[in-house]
Known about the structure:
The chain is of the alpha/beta class. 25% of the residues lie in helices and 26% in strands. It has helices at 15-26, 61-74, 123-127, 137-140, 156-166, 185-196, 290-308; strands spanning 5-11, 32-34, 78-80, 84-88, 94-98, 103-111, 115-117, 133-134, 148-152, 171-175, 200-203, 207-213, 218-225, 228-233, 236-239, 243-245, 276-278.
Amino acid sequence: MSEQIHNVVIVGSGPAGCTAAIYAARAGLSPVLVEGMEPGGQLTTTPEIGNWPGAFEMPSGFDLMQKLQQHARDLGTVFISDKVEKSSLKGKVKSLTLSSGQELKSRTVIICTGAAARYLGLPSEEQYKGKGVSACATCDGFFFRNKTVAVIGGGSAAFVEAIYLCGLCSKVYLVHRREGFRSEQVLVDKFKQFAESGKAQFVLNATVDEIKGDGNKVTALRLKVPEGIKELEVDGVFVAIGHNPATEVFSELQCDEGGYLKTGFGPETATSLEGVFAAGDCADHVYRQAITSAGQGCKAALDVEHYLQG
């Protein structure tokens, strides 16, 4: 396979990568997909998905990605269980070197490597991921209707999450390690309105010491504050301290200040180098939803098809 020049190599096996593979395969492009270190992407860690259109039975992220991967395989996509360690993307033929040493050459590349949410790094946080700890209010807020939650962070993303949750939850705490915020002032003001109504509350100059629970679900948040230790009784904790896009290996491409790949150089999913396209969370710091990633994967495959047609 290393001597063959492929039509398209897709890097990443989440919703964007699998959808790109499905469309590329249906176009007769014989796609090759490099799965990465986490086959199926970060969606596989989501216990229930209630917002995938038509999937009203709320499948787990693992089950949904198994179906997407199988769909791509059934159409002829070749999956490689490996990770891209080095890339050379200039010129008509691109080169990707895998951790095994295998080299893939291709006329086009679709990058769908995703982005990982930053977490606090606490053992208790890891213990309760999927059991009350989340990094996506849009994904998981539904499960905390009329309950009490805390949002950790002080940037715009944290305030957007907190404001969204105020529409669902009985009480929302916004926990931040300082008194000042990096967020847009309009978002701070909107959250203050909820705080004035008693629906929300600021907890400032506070750092998370431990997320407590009964083994099955979160029950409280233990904080370090200037006065000592403080505990909040909560049903859920939403960590909103940023994301890290997995784009380091593609250093030839233009990225924004957050490390997300820049697109729109001609077709919507085109990157700064000809024949290289990007879809999903590695290029999207706004929506970060499985369905929007899948839509972008579709667009990227169509853009590749048009590119190869000349």
